[in-house]
Amino acid sequence: MQPIISVCALSKVYASGFQALTDINLEIREAEIFALLGPNGAGKTTLISIICGIVNASAGTVTVAGHDIRRDYRETRSMIGLVPQELTTDAFESVWDTVSFSRGLFGKPTDPQHIENVLRTLSLWDKKDNRIMTLSGGMKRRVLIAKALSHEPQILFLDEPTAGVDVELRQAMWAVVRSLRDSGVTIILTTHYIEEAEDMADRVGVINNGEIILIEDKAQLMCKLGRKQLTLQLHDPLDAIPDKLSAYGLELAAEGAELIYTYDTQGEHTGITALLGELRQTGIRFKDLNTTQSSLEEIFVSLVRKPV
């Protein structure tokens, strides 16, 4: 199946000489949620802005549903909805008017029923006649999403969509995102809340210093790069780890009442069986054990700390 977005050898150098993106290659599948993660200044917003036709690339190509974003600008832009980071909208317009106007910008015929559906979905219907300036920050962000959905896009970019939004509203917004994906809309999001990417995304891309350093299905990423920890709750606390166990890289925790063993899930041998045997031989008894898997946040931090 042809990807709905294809980015090939994309680079961006600003007039100041700053290279924001270097040789980006990326394919986004239809009807997936793709999370683009990276630290501040990594190039996330620049990449999104180029795909959306807001910023011009210095080199490379981008196609949307087979259409070149430069040659077929109208076709590609009409397929894309963008929710930017900044809360920029006309303060004196009503919610209904600003969302309806956004639909008209894309040459779409008037459709009050669609606008009503969007506003109801985002819990904005009771605010439809309110001026934007009277809304809370969270409500204004919902309006940005409504504007992005007004022209029925096939692709929705969410650039830090829940920044400054309370937990309840964040959960409601993600419920909307899931329903959009289920209806066939492709979602590309950037977020600082990595737990959201872990919960929402089908695939994850990591960008750092303007370069894509990893693209992977989320489950496979966590399987490949994740570490597991085995925590043993001891019968009797230890003051120190016996020398005989030094090869296992154990850590003492909970004031000596726990032993923590970290191992690679992809290794040929986890070493757990040998460790338990060594514990038995040294007379260390444990009353319980449990395992935990690395979170996506831990994996992300380890990736961006690596030299590129």
SSE layout and pairings?
Elements: E1 5-13, E2 19-28, E3 33-37, H1 44-51, E4 59-64, E5 67-68, H2 73-78, E6 80-83, H3 95-105, H4 112-121, H5 137-149, E7 155-159, H6 167-182, E8 186-190, H7 194-200, E9 203-208, E10 211-217, H8 218-225, E11 227-234, E12 251-253, E13 258-264, H9 272-282, E14 286-293, H10 296-305
Helix pairs in contact: 3-5
Report on the architecture of this protein:
- The protein folds into two domains: 218 residues, Rossmann fold (3-Layer(aba) Sandwich); 68 residues, Alpha-Beta Plaits (2-Layer Sandwich), CATH 3.30.70.
- Helices cover 32% and strands 28% of the residues.
- It starts with a strand and ends with a helix.
- The protein has a six-stranded mixed β-sheet, sandwiched between helices. The protein has a four-stranded antiparallel β-sheet with strand order 2-1-4-5. Strands 12-13-11-14 form a four-stranded antiparallel β-sheet.
- The model has no long low-confidence stretch (mean pLDDT 88).
- A hairpin with a 4-residue loop joins strand 12 and strand 13.
- With 308 residues, the chain is α/β, with parallel strands linked by helices.
